[in-house]
Amino acid sequence: MTTxxxxxxxxxxLHGPSDLTRLPAHRxxxxxxxSKLAEVLAPYDFAEPYPCGLAACRQPHQHGFLxxxxxxxxxxxxxxxxxxxxxxxxAIKANIQAARASRxxxxxxLQGVLDHKEELLSRISELYDRKTGTRWANAELRSLKEHxxxxxxxxxxxxxxxxxETEVIDVREATKEEKEQHxxxxxxxxxxxxxxxxxxxxxGLKFLVANPHDTATVLKDKLYELTDTDAKSLSPKKLxxxxxxxxxxxxxxxxxxxxxxxxxxxxxxxxxxxxxxxAAIEERNRR
Length: 287
Description:
Blueprint: H1 17-21, E1 37-51, E2 60-69, E3 74-77, H2 79-86, H3 88-115, H4 117-129, H5 134-145, H6 154-163, E4 167-173, H7 176-185, E5 194-201, H8 212-227, H9 236-247, H10 249-266, H11 269-286
Antiparallel strand pairs: 1-2, 2-3, 4-5
Helix pairs in contact: 2-3, 3-9, 4-8, 8-10
């Protein structure tokens, strides 16, 4: 058995017990009293417990290894039974095969991204170019900020978006009736001079703290970077980082879609009206 982690020749894909039972050489239960280990073929992680293949055990487990004896018989064992029956040789080979299986899964994940690269790039282009896509959102927000009749209240809006607030509140002088009501319900309290009034609730503020166009562009650039990367030569940490990124691609697409949906709400006519109201309130408060 070679020790190269890129030697995947013995690995077998095992997703469930049926993958074991369909193997021609698999035998369970196996009386392995006099059996000698030839190789550990592959690790497995089943969703449900499955009995150990050794006749002396039969304890159900979810995590184990497919092994083959020198007689050419295959069976499944847990790590404790494997070490007890086959000794330290099992532990060494099991660790190597587990590392190989993990590495193969990582490399397969990245290859899967490359296999769908053109499809992913097409989806990014569609996000750029659709009627209410990322280019539209960027252009509309820029136009709004540069509007000559609107002092865009950036600081206030970004603070509201960060805190998850939506309410636009104005302060006005209390009416005679409000003052009398306040005095009646709060005897001895300071007289009411001003009161807060909710003008409305802004929609889609999360759009302001996420840039869908930049997110899509970073995703596109990473796809091209992966194309030029030799995954097998990466350090373990960098390989894990790439795999984590690959596993999050669909989540990034979902985030972009959510942000664009927020952009549509934020840039609606009703919302723009509230922005004008908020801008006027902030301007008055600065005086």
